[in-house]
What does this fold into?
Amino acid sequence: MVNSPRPMRRPHGRSERLREQVHRAVVDLLAERGPDELTIPLVAERSGVHQATLYRRWGKIAALLQDMVQAGPARTSALPDTGTLRGDLEAYAVGVAGSLAGPLGVLMLRAAVDAIPATADRGPSTVLAERRVQLGEMLGRARDRGESPPAVADLLEVVVAPLYFRALFDRPASAQDARQLVDRLLGDYSSPR
It folds into this structure.
């Protein structure tokens, strides 16, 4: 009996290198041209990856952009655990503001918005659904410490949404702006109910 060698799976193997190469090319093209001009042939030319590979793996630009958003900071960055609700919220808000202030943050945010289907029944994105769970865990830690955290929906509405709105339509929020949003959120919850 001859044992056939099984393919070795490498977490940072060829497939992951290809993905990073393509993502890097997309970021460069977005900075130069914007999302409306992005095409699979342009990404293939810039990345050095054959068009057929891009079509096979992603199919269309919208799927490629969604893959980039899902691979981005919302999925890969851990939430802070400072030991206090205020510390966690401030660290998180300042981190979001900082990531959106850089050119890559805004480009990825624009790409995420462009990838949203224009249907009323689209539901939340996978990234948002995952982040809600993570934020719920962060707020749950505060509850376990005896603190009175806000609801995840309120955190998203009072802190996160303004940070994203400003990044898209105004100058990005500063760290101080982010802390003020946290103050507003906690001010809403510090009074007795």
Q: What stands out?
A: The CA atoms of residues 44 and 51 lie 5 Å apart. Residues 14-68 form a domain with the Arc Repressor Mutant, subunit A fold (CATH 1.10.10.60).
